[in-house]
Amino acid sequence: MTLSSSDPGRDCPLCPRLVAFREEWRARQPDWNNAPVPSFGVDDGRLLIVGLAPGLRGANRTGRPFTGDYAGDLLYQTMIEFGFARGVFEARPDDSLTPIDTAITNAVRCVPPENKPTTDEIRTCRPYLGATIDGMPRLRAILALGKIAHDSIVVALGEKMARRKFAHGAHHNIGSLTVFDSYHCSRYNTNTGVLTTDMFRSVFSDMREFLDADPR
Ligand code: URA
């Protein structure tokens, strides 16, 4: 992705708790990314996939969304299956995985302790999500992975959260965009059966059909 203005700088100072966590991990693991994880993919793509936040030992380590995180295995495999990526996903930023017509980002760009960003941190990072959306001129669809991503997207698009409730498999037309909802493809959700592979594939199938029917 070349839209660096939609990404926070490596030393973004905006969330004190996340800065302290980042500094702690810079000292512990100097070879890791340990910085806001930039969006990855095609900036003139028609699909934007929005996760929650980088995983500590995954995207926070590798510097690419969902790369090294358990959730990335299902996400990238499903993207390939439905024609939203090609190549081989090897959980490294220098693998051959290449998004097609798609960019991937997170509602919160820095790794939060225990994978739980606060409401303030989600709000503080939202302008970057808004800038990513605004920086994709051909954007038609957004996939929200989980309720936090859904709520932040809805607000970034200028809608009231209360009017647009998250529901797995639902979609919401907001302005010129359609937001598709899925439970997050986290290890917890897949291990507990909250999200099955077929449930996830079904959302991708809906998005494929939607974009294939789109005249633009
Ligand atoms: N890794 C990410 O980059 N985002 C998530 O939401 C989960 C893991």
Task: Report what the structure shows.
The structure is a single chain. The chain is α/β, with parallel strands linked by helices. The protein has a single domain, classed as Uracil-DNA glycosylase-like domain (Uracil-DNA Glycosylase, subunit E). Helix content is 36%, strand content 14%. The strands form 2 sheets. A 6-stranded mixed beta sheet has the order 1-5-2-6-8-7, sandwiched between helices. A two-stranded antiparallel ribbon has the order 3-4. The radius of gyration is 16 Å and the shape is globular. The mean pLDDT is 96. The chain binds uracil. Uracil binds next to loops.
- End-to-end CA span: 21 Å
Strand % is 5-15%
Level-1 CATH class name: Alpha Beta
Which overall shape is indicated by the principal axes computed on the Cα atoms?
globular
CATH architecture label: 3-Layer(aba) Sandwich
Q: Looking at this structure, what is the CATH superfamily?
A: Uracil-DNA glycosylase-like domain
User: Helix coverage percent of residues?
Assistant: 25-40%
Sheet/helix structural class: alpha/beta
The helix count comes to 7
What radius of gyration results from the CA coordinates?
A: 16 Å
What small molecules does the structure contain? Answer: uracil
CATH topology (level 3) name:
Uracil-DNA Glycosylase, subunit E
Number of domains: 1
Number of separate strands: 8
Average predicted local confidence, pLDDT? 96
Biggest sheet record: 6 strands, mixed
